[in-house]
Design goal:
The chain is an alpha/beta fold and 393 residues long. The protein contains 14 helices and ten strands. The longest helix is centred in the N-terminal third of the chain and has 19 residues.
Length: 393
Amino acid sequence: MKKIISTIMILFLVGLLIAGCKPAQVTEAPKTEAAITEAPVTEAPKTEAVMTEAPVTEAPKTEAAGSELEMRIEAAKKEGQIVSYGMSDDWVNLGNIWKTIQDRYGVVHTDVDMTSAEQITHLLAEKNAPVMDVADIGFDSLGLLLENDLAMEYKNAYYDKIPENFKDPQGRWAIGYWGAIAFLVNKDLVPNPPKTWDDLLKPEYLDKICSRDPRVSTYATGSVLAAAYAHGGGESNVQPGLDFFKKLKDSKNWREGVVLNVAAVQKGECPISIVYDFDGFNKRDATGLPLEVIIPEDATVGMLFAQYINKVAPHPNAAKLAIDFFYSDEGQIMFAQGYAHPGRSDVTLPSDVASKILPQSAYKNIYFPSNLENFSKAIKQIKDGWEAIVGGS
């Protein structure tokens, strides 16, 4: 009997020893690829070690962060595509930018060309059946975008390198590039180019100046604001700019009935055009004409362009990869290759790129939006004031 009891006790002790050797049960959910494709990430990828420290301000570099980025790339490849609004290939070198994104991340890009205002209309109509992933929007339309809660909160991988006044505190938008209001002059047709806003009133420019309606064109509203600054006004007082453009129309120097585009410039229908500086350079390249880009000496305005992700983007992983690329050093330099000014001021342009754009000295009297609220009010006042000039036409 004692032998039996002893045997039982030995077996019992052995069982306890075996149980104690078992591995502890995993209490965390496994980090799988599905984690990337479900709940939206609202900040740039972070490693577990960085989560308790400052936000990541660069593309992931550690092994863990690299794995997370690889998971996002794989998720984007499964999504297979990315759709943009208002980011066509012929705008600020976007053709090459999108090609790089497609080749690097294995997605197919499609763009639908539209204005900033049209974007808002489409997004509201498509809320329950989203189409667009990312978009490029004029600063003056951001207010309406935010009011309707249409942008995803996502702080891109370079968020901390973007100037404070060029980004949203919640990461819903950031400025990828900007352009200044300029005169584009065909030197074959205008031997004595204008240098200031008041120069445009000279009789020698009769029926030679092309612009657009500020009610539908962002650079046209920027032109009125620039003229306001040149005549003692500004964001808080746009009336001097409206008064100037009324004089310009009354002088008959403003050419009526011509739509300002590449074709009109090519045909010589717009000897002097009021455009963005980067658009002027691109029109010069596209036409091969002797076109000169001139920044008005008395005042110009830096017009900002923001990029954002649709809050209900159908391809969120591809969208986040694209947004990260836009603000990377590489992306910012590629915008500059399209003659746009990078939103990040810390990026140093290669000499061959910097040499093709105007020097900083050309922008000695440039004004930027003080903030979104003030700028949006000024733009609305310009649009409303234009009604009085043209009589609601």
